[in-house]
Structure formats: C-alpha cells, structure tokens
Amino acid sequence: MRNHLTFLFLFLFTIYAQAQEKQMPVTTKADSLREAGDLAEAIALYRQGYEQDADDFTNTYNMACAYALLNNRDSAFYFLEQALPSDSTVLMMRDPDLVFLYEDDRYQALAEKQIEKVQAVHGKYQKPELARTLWRMMQTDQAFYGHTRVAEGKLGRRNIMTPAIWELKHRINEENQEALVEIIEENGWPLRSQVGGTAASAAFLVIQHADYELQKRYLPMIEAACKEGEASWSSYALMYDRIQTREDKPQKYGSQVRFNPETETYEPFPILEPEYVNQRRAEVGLGPIENYLSRWDIDWEVEQKTK
C-alpha cells in the first residue's frame, strides 16, 4: 500500500511540476536561458513570444539584447527598433547587454531618437553630452559581469575564461577612471540636475572600482552632493564602507563582503555596532542587511536594536 501511495504522490507531483512549467511565461524562461548564457535557446523562446505578442516590449527588447550579446547586429537593431517606440527611458544607452553595438552608426541614431523622447517627457538635460558620456561609462562599467557568471556556472569557479574577463574589466575600469577624473576636474562632481539621475549614478559606479586614493579624494564631493539632493545617500554609504574596509576599520552599513578561504564561505567585513546596522542602513535608504547578505548565502543572526 505504501509503495502505491508513494507512486501516486510522485505521479501527481510530476504532473503539477509540468503544469507549473507550462504556466511560466515564455519571456521568463527565455530570460533564464539568456542569464545562463544559452543564447540560441533563449532567442528561440523570445521569437515564440514575439509571434504571440509583437507588442510585448520586454520580450522584444530582451530578444534584441540576446542578439547583441552574440554580436548579431542586424537582428539586434531590427528588434530594438521594434521595441523602443514605446519606451521613453535611458535604458538602451546604459544597458551592458548592448555594449558591442555602441560603435555602430545605427546605435547612435537610435540613441538620438531615444534622448529626444526622454527629454520630451522629463525635460531637457543641462549637459546632454556629459550625460551621454556617463551613460556609456555605466554601460562599460557593468559589462561582462554576466560573462563571468556564465563562465563560472558552466566551467566552475577556477576556469580559464574568468581571469581573461577580469583583465578586460580592469582595463575598462582604468579607462573610465581616467575619463571621469578629467570630467570632475573640469565640471565638478556630476549632478542629477545637470545630467539626470542615471548618468549621475554612473560616476559613483566608476569611482567605486577605483583605487583607495581616488575614492578618498572624492568621498567629500559625494557627501556634499547628497546634502544638496544631487546624489544618492545609499551610494555614499557603499563608498564609505569600502574606504573603511580598505583602511582596516569597521564598516557602518554592512555593504562590503569578503570570501573566507578557510570556511569557503562569504562573510561581511567587521561592522561597527552590528546590532544597529539596520537602523543606519534605513537612514540612507538601504534595505535590511539580512536580505542583502542572503545574496551570498550569509545568515545574519545579530539581533537588531534602535537608539
């Protein structure tokens, strides 16, 4: 009798799992395949979704991204042109999936149209060319992280591809840092009112990958911009923590994590008064530390207090 019940349970569970899979949107399945680096399979599903609903912006745009990651420019631009008429954001200008398209004249033409739409909705930028430069910095800054995840997922943590990708990332970071220093020396810290929030945050992304001296130099500028409502306090907190850990001092916001080779697990760098960390995080717009650390499978068990 027990064997029959076990078989019945497994049969019903299998039917349920298959039903759940069928209910999962095509775009969601395709996105998962794209994130895993299975681009051909992802594109096949995106096309299926496109045939079902050609007006689905998310599906069509993500299909264009998959083609762009393959450097299949003609198909990427074809579907970008299908997707973007309904979009009035700066997404395509800062999207790392489109990094290979930037030098193509078709990309610049699409960007011009997109900027016109953005400014029609949100108002004109004080410094539009600076905004474009910063969007490009954000795009290149965030590019190739997905490649490292795919390499480690398919080949293991110690593989032949990851060091090469990180060397490329290092060179990109150096180029961005040199360009940003010139911008800051000439214009000051990029402000939201000048270039918009996305472009302004690009400056932070570049500096957070810079060396200690550069971060230390510009932290007061970031703080001053935050006080004027021209920058994000959460970005300031991340930079503050990074500098603290580089100076071998406890961090305040728990944003910096390290790998412990002895336990082969991740752990946060030491935190000042860890029982109050969530209070400090909330003050700068960061969510609870337990949610943040769960990304690295870290269990946070320090009871939180307020004062």
TrEMBL record:
SUPFAM superfamilies: TPR-like. It holds the Pfam family DUF6624. Keywords: Signal. This is Uncharacterized protein. Gene3D superfamilies: Tetratricopeptide repeat domain (1.25.40.10). The keyword Oxidoreductase does not apply. Residues 1-19 form the signal peptide.
